[in-house]
Design goal:
The structure holds two protein chains of two kinds. By secondary structure, chain A is an all-alpha fold. Chain A has helices at 4-26, 34-44, 48-58, 62-91, 99-113. Chain B has a six-stranded parallel β-sheet with strand order 3-2-1-4-5-6. Classes of the chains: A mainly alpha, B alpha/beta.
Chain lengths: 114, 474
Amino acid sequence: MSGNTTGILEFLTIFVLAVFVGNEVVSRVPSILHTPLMSGSNAIHGIVLVGAMIVMGTASGAAQMVLGFLAVLLATLNIVGGFTVTDRMLEMFKAKPGENQARAKGADTEGGAK
Amino acid sequence: MTLTIWINLIYLLAAIAFIVALKGLSSPKQARNGNLLAAGAAVIAVGATFFNPEAHFSHHTTNLILAIVAMVLGAVIAVPVARLVKMTAMPQLVAIFNGVGGGAAALISIVVFLSDAHLHDLGAPKPATYAIVEAMLGLLIGCVSFSGSAIAFIKLQELITGRPITYAGQQVINGLVGLGIVGLAVATVLTDSVPLMIGTAILSLVLGVIFVLPIGGADVPVLISLLNAFTGLAVAASGFTLNNNLLIIAGTLVGASGILLTRMMSKAMGRSLSNVLFSAFGSVVTAAGGADGTGETRQVKSGTPEDIGVLLAYARKVVIIPGYGLAVAQAQHTLRELADLLMEKGVEVFYAIHPVAGRMPGHMNVLLAEANVPYDELKEMDEANPEMSTADVALVVGANDTVNPAAKNTPGSPIYGMPIINADEAANVVFLKRSMRPGFAGIDNDLLFDEKTTLLFGDAKDTLSKLVAGVQEA
């Protein structure tokens, strides 16, 4: 890549397109899934970990090392915690209406058979 | 050079996976797979970053080891916390995971700022001013998100009052701090001075705190959603700083979708976003209550579990309106037991879910799903309201503001205009409440004093099991 302003324009283009995609993608989410959506998007911005790793890799001197270490730690909390908690929420949405009870009963009888 | 291309391709695939994952979240069936897809993509992107030449890990073994230690430590803390925290504490957890993400973005900016090399070595060369502006944006937004989320966490955890905290001249002070940040940030960009940068960071942390303090009660979920969007934008700013497309796309996706979600949430409460953020909702409570003037002396009718059991067992149609009190008491399983029992007796039962029931939109759906309540028994507010006038009993379990008729009838009330579930249209109303304490918004509810209303005081789990016994005997 060369040229000073071309690079910036490229990133700006990506940014603007992502704004539209972001808006488009959630416009059809039903309100019952708002909480998992918030939690899921919370996990996705945990990808800041990639950025934290890059600055950690190039850090030099005590101050940068400590701050870089903290950045990686916090970003890991965000990404790992975010995906885990979202999965836990969505685990409860797995069954369709009626299937829940059937499955629970099925589990009961299986337990009984053993 | 080829390695860089491969890694950027992996980043592109991860970005696509994130978009697909967000789309998957629009359907209950695909949501979980979507989340797993995003998690898998994140793992691969993070793994690829170890080989990213821009990270220089191959030359800096100490940095590599420290990064791995930090990641292991983070995972060891995050997994048990995310697994073990109760479903009711979910909003706090989202707040805290969001805050640390903002903190990470802010720290990235600081490290980049401290190391001159970053301004020249990373990715496409660009004028230093642009690089500093981008770093300052990440720093500013990240700091506000970090301290704001921390205060939101403290409020939801009830370590301090959940009510709005207000003082004279609040908005003027917030405005001045905001201006101060802009001034300091501009000065930092012009002078490239480290002390000024640190000053901007500190002032941004202060802004996060004072911005969140006056937002209380039922508005905190909207706030968390907004802070989530902020962190997304901070991450996008980090992406600009590091010339990383994945960070720009992921951060912007979250920022844009988060702001839309925030607006949908305020709309569900019948208010504009600026009203939610700046009106210190709930601080006018005493004035509104005082205007009524009758609050303290009015009589309520409380019933026994047996009476109410009979009322429920012989009803044709019962609408259950759950609220946060249900979640606090962990009574969703007992509630389902009661509903199943009534259905066995031939009563038509459904749950009417207010969009902001619980403390986040959809929170109540998650809690009821945990208790294996089938979807088709859950009705959204718009679907439930036309049926309220034909219901024999509206059973309000731990809810209050979401059924408060003041939202329709009292123009002076702070919740006036908020859509509610019309429990007042049912032939009978039964409230299961812990006490006469007003709801999260802190407003008196006239429906409690209505003559068709019966109250049953106590912990929701306890009163619900008594009701189950009452219905069985009836």
